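Bench notes, bay 3.
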Amino acid sequence: MNNELYQYYVIDRVHRGLRSDWKEDLAAKYAAEGLSPEERMVRRFEMACQKETPAIHPLEKIVLRRTLRKLPDVLTEDEWKEIRKDHYVHELGYVSNLSPDYEKTIAQGLLARRENATPAQVRVIDAIIGLCDRYQAEAKRMGREDIVAVFDRVPRYGARNFREALQFFRILHFSLWLEGDYHNTVGRFDQYMYPYFKKDMGAGVYTKETALELVEDFFLSFNKDSDLYVGVQQGDNGQSMVLGGRLADGSEGFNGLSELCLLASRNLKLIDPKINLRVNKNTPIELYDMGTELTKVGLGFPQYSNDDVVIEGLTRLGYDYADAVNYVVAACWEFIIPGVGNDIANIGAVNFPKLVDEVLRAYLPTGGDFEGLLQAVRTAIKVECERQMATIKNVWFLPSPFMDLLRDAKKYNNFGLHGCGIASAADALAAVKEYVFDKKTVTPARLFAALDCDYANDPELLHLLRYEAPKMGKNDDRADKMGGMILDAFADALEGKKNDLGGVWRAGTGTAMFYLWHARDLGATADGRRAGEPFGTNYSPNLFTEIPGPLSDIESFTKQDLSRTVNGGPLTLEFAAGIFNRPDSIRKVAQLIQHFVARGGHQLQLNAVNLDAMKDAQAHPERYQQLVVRIWGWSAYFVELDRDFQNHVMARQEYSV
């Protein structure tokens, strides 16, 4: 690691003070001129490239950094309101959460892509080349002939070596952000970059040590401008990199570059790029050891995705096998296809605890049996899914000429729904079965009276439902089967349904920020959850569930058929950071991950946390600028998070091994 470069960009963040603001009101100007949305996007991009000031640190090898702060919108508020009258506008209305095909353009060069480009794409290509020419001129002024030589080749022409390929990627990735696209993922980096790496290593251009130094420089580039990138919280920027995984011929994709990426991430201890490891039942334990070394330093990644489950689930949804086997992870954990995917994997979320609560209140007074109650829950899930599907019509995005240049087709147009609060909903059903139907020790009247006053009048019932009732995470079939029923009902409700783009609907086990938002407005529930108390993150137990250990958690959350809910959403395990002081801890954690995969788990993320450090960081944030935690599908610096997100991480159960 280059310590001076690290100090400049990560610790002191000197470059942030060199940025300027964009003062023009482009939206009003463009509206007055009556410009089309595409023309607005192209003009803003051309202006942005012209306004950027080439800036190169004397020691960096991979260049380009933002000198402009927030990009101005291209539509006025009134224009957005008018569009929303007849269209569904997802999030900000700009293209997001996709995985472009970097490989083709890095190999061919922008001039070759320009030959078959649209007029709008020709203009953005010319703007990018113009910016790179000014970077080359700045490098020449500084006497950086190594950078000058790289820009002699890229981005006009295809990369010939590893450094040129890395710099080309940086140009493309930087340009996507400058276009206004966001949550721009990295894809299967170790696959499309490996030929360049292998060639240079074979020719003796690099040793392992010098190649690692170059990769570390490249990784730093993801962190130069991440504070400018859009997200619910700082750190939620979507710079997700996938390593390893099955190849189309059935072989394994983990290679020497994959290993260097893990080492670089471990050495730098930065939140970007966010590492995802694709694994399967045949993955050797040594790979899990390497992944756990990253967990040990407290990055909250790698996140693991199980090829055995995910590829099967994607092909079941209609993805061609050649595409399914090439899947990557979106900004957080949703599974998408690079180069040809146009999926909106986070278009909505179902609040399972709310649905179960409504069903209990409507059904229990009727005196029906428990099977009737379950059928009512299935129906409620179906009705809610149909309601959400009906509201999402005429989806509209601003044009994105450069992103479209990096995609040969929009082959898949599928929409994904998150399933929020699965454990809370399952635990509520299991508790009602246990005490209302089977043991008959709790009447519906008593239950509803307690819920309506947030258990204030019945602390005994609160204790019973909160701490003694069946819970997902305790390896208790009574609750785990309820979780499976909910997931099956969710998948059934979406199966065969088409959206208005011709794509299918995908069920998932993720929550995104809804584990706070959905819970905030929901009163007390029959699992012993108090009013407003957050749900567990993604596919994880309630925060208050007293779980014997991580093995119990894994056993609970791998009993279900997770190939039917492959929109994504991991089981999250929190480990006390102190466990890694023991020499056998790395292998023990690795064995837990291996067991999760062998049992058919679909996605897993682990966090090494220090509760005392987090408490102190809330009181003295200036002492903990580099403290990293995992949120729902991304990692962030703890002190940059809102207090609600900090508190949720602190409330999660810490495991030992």
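Next record in the batch:
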Amino acid sequence: MIDDIKKTLWATADKLRANMDAAEYKHIVLGLIFVKYISDSFQTHRTELTRRLSDAGDDYFLDNSDANILQEELEDRDYYKEANVFWVPEPARWETLRAQAKQPDIGKRIDDALTLIEAENPKLKGILDKRYARVQLPDGKLGELVDMVSTIGFGTTGQSARDLLGQVYEYFLGQFASAEGKRGGQFYTPASIVKTLVAVLAPHQGQVYDPCCGSGGMFVQSEKFIEAHGGTIGDVSIYGQESNPTTWRLAAMNLAIRGIDFNLGKEPADTFVRDQHPDMRADFVLANPPFNISDWWHGSLEGDPRWVYGTPPQGNANYAWLQHMLYHLKPNGRAGIVLANGSMSSSQNSEGDIRRAMVEADKVEIMVAMPGQLFFNTQIPACLWFLVKQKSKHKGEVLFIDARKLGTMISRVQIEFTDADIQRIADTVHAWREDGEASVDYADVAGFCRSVTLAEIAEHGHVLTPGRYVGAEAVEDDDEAFGDKMLKLTETLGEQMAKGIELDALIRQKLGGLGYEF
């Protein structure tokens, strides 16, 4: 049911886009969904407050039957602030905007509403994107979009309305990323990759950090994992950073719409040059940094304390990201990072030296090779690095998993891990760690997984490509079974050849009767 709703809404929204570029249009649509969310949350709390103020048995009971007094009380911002609900001034409430949807200046009215909301809620300052007055949509289309967004959450209340809006927001993010192709990968990591990271790291509680958080997908999946395992949103603290201002806004809205408290820094900023959380040490780091960035270096980074295992090359940020993640981990923390496959074997410009130093220091816990075509923005095969500050078990070993044969084609150009694929990877890791999450004992599986000593890795020049260590899949070596199969195949082939000779003779006979000679 919910999937049908999301698909129908997307089809409608995409139709209203007309010729507008998806990169621009996503901010218009997602901004409206966010305004609808905060307005719905405000109205839901207001309705509940009205009931409590009128209930003689409630602590909030207002012992006054004057309707005007009740309305004045409902406008007291403290009631909403204490419940962590954004205050929405009357001119900015969704029903007010909906009533004005057909007005020719609806764009300016939305911008004015956003300005009012920001003024009343300091936490939203700089997050709401006021671009509606200049939006390049055909006449009437913006009003139709307001009408469409008005249907989201209709007939639902409270938690279910918020969940629905959150799911629609997340679904639309994915659809826009797909529509934008290469550019879409800059703000969205496909859900199956994020789920894999989260399933392996198992972030039950503590501080979760993503230094290149895009639209916040890592945090959303972490929240889902926690709730699925009986926890609550408040069990983790969210810290993120994002350099792109519009993407930073998308992340803030994505988290706020789910009621997740977050700290994305004071402003959008470059993680290397203007680290927004320099003193923070996280329990879990989850990240999908942009692959192979070549223009990341700045002179101020020379001698940076993050470069514990060597100064990263100025022409590629991969090993800067890896060391940044390690630096921000607590002593018992774990990090999961998506990087291009080249990071596992490159020896150019000090990368091999840094990798060797990290391996020898026993900071690399698990390496997972993934299939190509998992991303919107690149066909480059990627891998997952799992790093630790210190290992409690399997010291001096690295678990290698070759997941390149997993995944299912979901479109002509994209592969996705199924839930069963993700579970297989996660079960393998938890069994190897012996961490209580596992339901089976660990065993090496030829062609899929193997636990390898640092000494053996050193023999391979500290290359961390799983295919080099896990070997080939086991093949059937039952001589009797093989012999039986060959006998059957030989008999079938003999029968087919005999049938072919009969048919050839019959054809020659028929054609001879027609006067053809051979």
